Amino acid sequence: MNELCKRHLFKLGPLFFFLIFLLGNLHAEDSLTLQVESKLFEVSREIPGLSFVLEVEEKENDLSIFSLTKSAQKGFWISDTLLDFRSATHLRDTVFSSSGIKGEISFLIFGKKSEKEAIHEFLDNLSRNELLMADVSSKSNGFEEGELHSLASKVNFSPFYGLKTKILVDTKMVLLVSTFILFLVASVILVTIMYVVKKRKKKRDSLTMKFKELSFEPISNLLFEHSLQELQSFDRTKFESFFPVDHLKDNLFKDVMILEIISLNKNMKGEFKTKLKTIYRKLGLDAHSIQKLSSKKWDVITSGIVEINEMDVVEAVEKVKKFAKSENFYVRSNAVATLLNISNDPELKVLVDQDFPLSRWQQMVYFRIIKFINNSQEKVKVDLLFESKNESVRVFGYKLVRYLGLFEMLEILVNKYKNASIPEKLEMIKCFDAFSYQDSLNLLHRDLATADKGLFLGIVAVLKNIGNPISEVIMLEKLKSDLDFESKKAVMQALHILNPDLLEEWSCNAKDIEVQQIFNHLIDPVLSHV
Amino acid sequence: MYNLLLDILVEIFGILFLVYSFSVISFYLIMTVLSALEMRDHLKKNKFADYRDVITSPVTPGISVIAPAYNEGQNIVQNAKSLLTLHYGKFEVIIVNDGSKDDTLEKMVESFSLVKTDYAYYKHVETGKIRGVYKSTNPSFAKLTLVDKENGGKADALNAGINLAANEILACIDVDCILSSDSLTRMVRPFMEETNRKVIAVGGVIGVANNCQVKDGTVTEYRVPDTLLGRFQVIEYFRAFLMGRMAWTRINGLMLISGAFGFFNKELVLKVGGYFPKTVGEDMELVVRMRRYMEETGQKYKVGFVPDPLCWTEVPESENILSKQRNRWMRGTIETLQLHQKVKLNPKYGVLGMVSYPYWSVFEKGGPVIEMTGFLYTLLMIFTGDISALYFVGLFCLMYVFSVMISAFSILFEGVAYNNYKDRSDLNKLMKTVLLEPFLIHPKIVLWGLKGHWHFIKGKGGWGEMIRTGFKKAEDKKKIDIPIQL
Q1: First-to-last CA distance in chain B?
Q2: pLDDT at position B331, please?
Q3: Going by DSSP bridges, is the β-strand pair B465-467/B483-485 parallel, antiparallel, or unpaired?
Q4: Closest chain A residue to B138 measured between Cα atoms?
Q5: Which pLDDT tens digit goes with each residue over B353-375?
Q6: In a domain? residue B325
Q7: How many angstroms separate the CA atoms of B409 and A451, rounded?
Q8: Contact, B57 vs B88, CB < 8 A?
Q9: Which of A142, B31, B259, B382 is least surrounded by Cβ atoms within 10 Å, i.e. has the fewest?
Q10: Please, which residues have CB within 8 angstroms of residue A438's CB and are 6 or more apart in sequence?
Q11: Do B162 and B286 contact (CB within 8 A), yes or no?
Q12: For residue A469, what is the domain's CATH number?
């Protein structure tokens, strides 16, 4: 190629590309028209809001025979709005074949005239939102039905949506599957745990039964066939020879033996108790109980403390002491009970130092122990409890005065009464009542003016039993004031005991219905026994 | 346009049902874990409790046992004797004859040498007219008090008993319940143990006595009932008491203590005004009101629960009676939740407001409505052909397996904790019931619950009207359901 030719080619190059671009554009426009029209042939009726109008430009001839009407625009004829594209094209073709005039089909979207591009976009939008299904018929793909069948028989079937795809694209299904998995995993874990626990419990129960049988006979033999001196002279090996050697190192066997010994210990007295403790110690079970105190499980620690308590393992006192202020209620309660029982502490120091409030349950347990110590060993110094910083301990101390019959403490109570809190006063006055302590009367009379209803009722209950004529006068005055029903009843009950004539005289003159009701109650012979 | 809207609605409903199912499963799984932990702790604690002292110790609190009776003439004397022989030191028994139409009063008077007295008491709580207070001339029955009053319903009768109660703990029970002789000693323990919080109420387990052998007031041999409905209730009671209430106790969220066997702090009951007589769910309502009081006054408190088998009752084995019971329970629940709406999702009420109340609203009250809507939704989807078979089958299997699993777990749970049903054939029967329950019984329970909703909307037994229910047994026997205008 010569230089001139090359130069011409470079000049014509842009022109060439421009032509190609134009051609492409023309082709695109053409193909757009074709695409839109071919699509509209199929689906125009299914598209809501899409309609067509045929417009024909004709100034001379009358086209009304084709159901066309003259437009306001001069020289134009238009058809009615047509919903079907096929009808529109059919009308256009009819007009053309009859009159040789080719009309134009206009597209209307929701009644508004639109360009072909807009129609194309509209159709695309509908397809994207799956409101208009793409036509996948064999015709559009150029296949005949028979051909499709023959093709299908040659190609392996694979569904368009695989199960995996379907599950993953469906939000609900994803949620369902995850719920199912969560449930299955959780329930399998739970049931497995429960099953294992049940199996273990069953195994433990059967072993416990077996060990009970194995240990009961040797313990009974040792207890009833040997004297205390003999038992004390036996060494550990001798003791172990009575028991099945294979199980002696088994912790469960030791636990069962301890429980058996404790159970017998509770039901026996005197020398038998000492014998049981000897067996317990000689078999080294005390070490097993002490060992439990090192556990991290509160129930194991508590069972260790209980065993130490029952078998009086005095040497473990120091170890138990550290649990006396435990956060755990059961550990703390049993540790305090054990210390009260075995630490030889008549000053009840462990109680005085308690930071936690004492519950009634604890008071019940401690009272049993303190009563036992007080009656069988050494007199406990309950008065030290009155000095505790813990109010519930002080209240418990006052209760002990009453329960243990510590009459000599009443003087201390009288001295403390003035500065005591209401709960303390309530316990103190019960003590005065229990011992009919007349010296407390002045305090009680003074406190009848209290605003605390509980204290007032408590004092009246005491005055009912130990009151004097001054009490009668004060209570009668109180009765004349505005008392609630409960207080009125309590005062009248007290007066009824102290001076029935005085009450009768006053009641007969009183116009208060409640007073009459209460008086009738008090004189009812059946209720007087209740 | 409308199709699009329908599609969106269908989609939203589908997701909502799925979220609901997911929540149900999650809640139940959490409850299962919590109840297991609580039961484990309870059994451990029980090992260290010596109940012998409770009976004789001067420290233990006194208990007033209140038992309302309506048309109980047939068994009242035996029941009262059984209550009087409970093993406890300081207690009294108050039987309230709630205007019985039979010979309940006469039998009591005759058997216990009762005479009408001039008993003076203060009406802390307003009640129906009291016709008389009876005490025995025989000192052996000094603990017994009989209150004769005009009929006013269970709550009103309990209130009458509360007015007369002299002790600090109230034990409100159904007179026809069988109580274990050590029931008081065991139920009083939570009240006695707590140190930092006030125990306001303690609930107990109700066992199913149908078919069981009873000796000296205690069930000695456990057998499952012969009917499917009876066995279903055995499982239901396991689920409700051993799992549900134990779990709520773990988080101190218990909102319901059974009216047949509940213990309350008297001082607090009086402070909140006793039982509310205009609801059929008086037991639940009282607990919620007491809890509200404690929350509003900023006091630390606890509602306890004792899962030991101490109380048994005969459950209805006829569909007619059971449907009335469930209808009543549903109305009681709705009424209580309506009354205490203030609590709903209110952080001020802690667990009560943020967990218990929403749970009861959605799963207990709303359960039947949501289930029925779900059922209708599924039917609609099948009808329109718009249902994914995979989705439907998946969800169905999930819920079925789940319900079977939870029920089976509750049986296993009972086995581990108490193992009362020792007979293998009984366990097989229970398992069979577990498999059938979702198909044969659960739909009926849903329908009865919906009926409860409907009756509430209509005002039957609701705010405007009150049903003089009498008491379960008596009512169920007589099958009466007479609404009266207040």
Answers
A1: 52
A2: 94
A3: antiparallel
A4: A526
A5: 999 999 999 999 999 999 999 88
A6: yes
A7: 56
A8: no
A9: A142
A10: A466, A468
A11: no
A12: 1.25.40
Residue B403 tokens, joined: 């319900």
The number of C-alpha atoms within 13 Å of A265 and in the hemisphere containing its C-beta is 20
A11: in domain: no
Other Cβ atoms less than 10 A from the Cβ of A276: the count is 24
* Residue ending a domain, choose from A150, A183, A202: A150
Report yes or no: A517 at the B interface, CB cutoff 8 Å: yes
Which residue is associated with the tokens 């036996």? A234
| Number of neighbouring beta carbons within 10 Å of residue A101 | 15
With CA atoms as reference, report the closest residue to A423 among A468, A390, A446. A390
Angstroms from B463 CA to nearest CA on chain A: 32
Residue A59, classified by CB atoms within 10 Å of its CB into exposed (0-12), middle (13-18) or buried (19+), is exposed
CA dihedral B219, B225, B229, B231 (to 10 degrees): 80
Tell me if chain B has a CB within 8 Å of the CB of A200.
Answer: no
Residues of chain A contacting B415 with CB distance shorter than 8 Å: 198
Q: What is the DSSP string of B115-165?
A: EEE------SS--SPEEEEEEESSGGGTTEEEEEE----HHHHHHHHHHH-
The pLDDT, as a whole number, for residue B216 is 66
Q: How far is B120 from chain A (nearest CA, A)?
A: 5
Token pair for residue A427? Answer: 């316990």
Percent of chain B exceeding pLDDT 90 equals 61
Per the domain annotation, does B143 fall within a domain? no
Q: Measured at the alpha carbon of residue A293, what is the angle toward residues A288 and A299, in degrees to the nearest 5?
A: 100
CB distance from A399 to chain B under 8 Å?
yes
Domain count, chain A: 2
Q: How many structural domains comprise chain B?
A: 1
**pLDDT tens by residue, B297-347:** 999 999 999 998 889 988 999 999 999 999 999 999 999 999 999 999 999
Residue B461 scores a pLDDT above 70:
no
pLDDT along chain A (530 residues), means of 10: 49 45 42 62 76 83 80 79 84 83 83 80 75 51 54 58 61 76 81 83 89 87 84 82 83 90 86 88 90 94 94 91 93 94 85 92 94 85 92 95 92 92 94 92 91 93 92 90 90 92 87 88 82
* Cα gap B424→B430, rounded to integer Å: 10
SS3 B255: coil
Query: What is the structure's pLDDT at A18?
Result: 44
Does some domain include residue B12? yes
pLDDT at B462: 44
Sign of the C-alpha dihedral computed for residues A38, A43, A44 and A47 taken in this order: negative
Which of A255, A361, A452 best tests the B interface by mutation, with the highest count of B CBs <10 A?
A: A361
CB atoms under 10 Å from CB of B227, counted, come to 17
Is residue B119 within 8 Å of residue B67, measured between CB atoms? no
Structural domain boundaries, residue A492 = 426-530
Residue A358 in domain: no
- Token pair 């294979």 in the structure block, residue: A246
Residue B18 contacts A where some CB pair is shorter than 8 Å: yes
* A52 contacts A114 by C-beta, under 8 angstroms: no
Is residue B271 assigned to a domain?
no
Helix (H) or strand (E) holding B307: strand B301-313
- The answer to whether residue A211 sits within a structural domain is no
Least confident of A138-152, A476-490, B147-161, B413-427: A138-152
Domain that holds residue B473: 1-48+217-251+302-486
Q: Is the ipTM of this complex over 0.90?
A: no
Report the alpha-carbon distance of residue B13 to residue A360 in Å, rounded: 54
Distances (CA, A) of B192 to A381, B202, B247, B250: 25, 11, 22, 18
Instruction: Give the other-Cβ count within 10 Å of A466's Cβ.
Output: 18
Q: Is residue A123 part of a domain?
A: yes
Q: Which amino acid is at B317?
A: E
